[in-house]
Specification:
This is DUF4136 domain-containing protein. The protein is an alpha+beta fold. The chain is built from 4 helices and 8 strands. α3 (61-73) packs parallel to α4 (172-183).
Length: 198
């Protein structure tokens, strides 16, 4: 089971040959068991930021909204936090990597550790695609669906993407929707498998 983005060489090849008009693929992994899927159902959910975040902040809102949109498309209803059957926790983090420099000069994150697989952003590599060094923005979206009454995690998923800084496909409004859509494609998905969604 892979925990991070694809190897730097593979990532470089994807971005180098995809061309400026194409978005990088989204790498998606989901976790669940037959028991938790059976309990998941399609009741009402309350979608919010992960513990320690402000889901109403301008930074978090597009990601929360994108996840809620996908859950609605899956047939879930919506309710207040006290009335929902399930609580959906959303978090994301981003890191910019520059060519020829140590990673981590820019890091922005929303949300804390909400699942057993949470261990930071995957390894990345900056590289020259012409016109000088290009920043690459690595983004990771994580979602946990919990039973409201018990707090038990019923489903967990993560989506990862690497986009050239400044690319239209990397704009928050575009990327949040694309990553959320990839995360819930074929929901609940095959547990532990990592797939790439274009």
């Amino acid at each position: 089971m892979r925990r991070f983005l694809s190897s730097p060489v593979a990532l470089a090849a994807v971005l180098a040959f995809a061309g400026p008009a194409l978005a990088a693929p989204v790498e998606v992994t989901r976790f669940h068991t037959p028991e938790t899927v059976a309990l998941l159902g399609k009741g009402a959910v309350f979608v919010t930021g992960a513990p320690g975040t402000d889901p109403q902040s301008l930074q978090a809102a597009p990601w929360v909204d994108a996840v809620a949109r996908e859950l609605g498309a899956q047939g879930f209803g919506f309710a207040t936090a006290g009335a929902a059957d399930r609580i959906v926790e959303v978090r994301f983090d981003q890191e910019t990597v520059r060519q020829g420099r140590e990673r981590g000069p820019v890091s922005v994150g929303v949300g804390g550790a909400t699942g057993g697989w949470n261990s930071g952003v995957g390894l990345g590599l900056g590289f020259n695609l012409g016109g000088g060094p290009k920043d690459v923005v690595h983004t990771r979206l994580g979602v946990v669906i919990r039973d409201r009454a018990t707090g038990r995690a019923l489903w967990e998923g993560r989506a990862e993407s690497a986009e050239k800084a400044g690319a239209a496909s990397g704009r928050t409004d575009v990327l949040s929707r694309r990553m959320a859509h990839g995360l819930f494609q074929g929901f609940p998905g095959r547990s532990g498998d990592t797939i790439k969604v274009k």
